[in-house]
Amino acid sequence: MLVSLEMASLLSKTSQERPSLACKYTVSMETSAWSPVLGAPWLWPQRCLGSTESASLAWKEEICATPRLFADNPQEGQVKQGLLGDCWFLCACAALQKSRHLLDQVFPPGQPSWHDHTYRGSFTCRVWQFGRWVEVTIDDRLPCLAGRLCFSRCQREDVFWLPLLEKVYAKVYGSYEHLWAGQVADALVDLTGGLAERWSLRDLARASSQQDRPGGSEHRTCRRLLSLKDRCLISCSVLSPRAGARELGEFHAFIVSDLRELQGRAGQSILLLCIQNPWGRRCWQGPWREGGEGWSRVDPADESELLSQLQEGEFWVEEEEFLQEFDEVTVGFPITEAGHLQSLYSGKALCHTQELPGAWVKGQSAGGCRNNSGFPSNPKFWLRVSEPSEVFAAVLQRPRVCAAGQAGRARAPVGDRLASRSPASFLGEDYQAVGLHIWKVEKRRVSLPRVLSTPPVAGTVCHAYDREVHLRCELTPGYYLAVPSTFLKDVPAQFLLRVFSSGRVSLSAGPERATSRPPVCLSRAVPSSRRLGALPLGRPCPRASGRPCSCGAPGEPARQQGAVGTLPPTRATPASPCRSLRAQAPAASVSPCVNTARTPSATLSASTSSRQAPPALGVPGGGPQGLCVPTGGRA
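Now predict its structure.
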């Protein structure tokens, strides 16, 4: 790859001043610079920009005269999105500012910084990957356009913890381009080592209407968020904007930075949510904007207080607006300074943690879901509970990475051939639909086929194409059998079973194999999750190819999630709206942030199943590099 003169002189300068680290990762794509986790090539950020921008891109060290790693107050370190569709990652980064011990876990304290004489031009960060904390060292060069950072930055441009962490995350996953589109929940797990939950507001509304209690479940969710606001990160996302709200974008993630309950002038209770847009500007024109008619319902003192605390990119919405305009909420589990998770439901500390790796091996232990007679051959684990406990059990999949080709395109087997796939599908395309079920047994010597034919005491609602699925249950003392499974039979994958409990538990490997027998309960497949920052695309049906999957036997609702990563509308709107496009086989011309379906004829849709998790935040379009702009964005 050719490098501009400005960049070449910069690399020459830094290599002379810092021979040990200067050019450690500043190599062309054809050489062997690899991600420490996935084994993917470390790519240049030019891959994420159009030809005009990449011509003037440079890696710069001296961006400002007095750089700082952290800000003196959280407002100065507020996240702002650049030219990369990684709003899902930036929302997760905001969680680190809520607790200093979380930030210290990612940025080990005591490292020399720019003004220390021992500073060598590098920083070391930690990212949680598949059960362990991985240390990643980077130099301090950052990609710039016209002298300014072209990707993420903080509110104060002399604060650099965020762009440095973004560079670390890009190194872990192979390139900046691979950060285009993802799930807030996945980034939260990578930065904290904990758990995160996604709540679909559309599903809650549907459940309330079916029970003839309109708004009941939704409003209870908002009240729960009010109780959680000081303990954990809350993010929300828009998958497809409602009429009149296109300023929120499509497939875009936001941060819920505050919640306030006010007493209205008429005596009614009013719940307001403060939403922070990673784009860094106020885009909401609702009744609670500055000067809006909503403020006439509250005391002027409350209006003055709430408006005065708004930072750039923040705006207030009422509970009803929030439920109407947003599709999904992601909540990270609180983590104490001792490193223990806290339950979102009871507030109990989950002080006891166990984890074991496992694998589904084709022809041996990949028995599929409970629809299949081979279900008993799935990996099994003994869980011993010593006291009444609140237990969270999670199955985390390891990304399956094959050989990597040049130009950042991964090559992986599809059927009997090798197919080139876009980097946007590099991380999430190979996730299987997984689920987890738990049975209580009287003793460890039991008839496994008989036990597995009875209803479990706990289980995931459906098999989901998510990186991690988890369940919550209240367990009494005794022995339990945990069986993680894929929906389809004979699909190989590796996983990590994690257990978090308020009481003492132990986890051990179960019997290797059990005699198969016909199942009595049926499972339902779910479509693949859409990452925020990608187009909504349905995963083809395992039983009938050609349309998004919403099939399965009665008993488990189908669900599809999405990825978040919308760019601010700084470009002209694409000639044809992205949501009218159709999925096509990956090719060089396909946008890197398109979450491509396996079936070429699958239609892009924001709602392809009855229980569909939110799509990716960020709509690609407007150029070969797929820069994302919401419909109606300005030039």
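The first strand starts at residue 57 and ends at 60.
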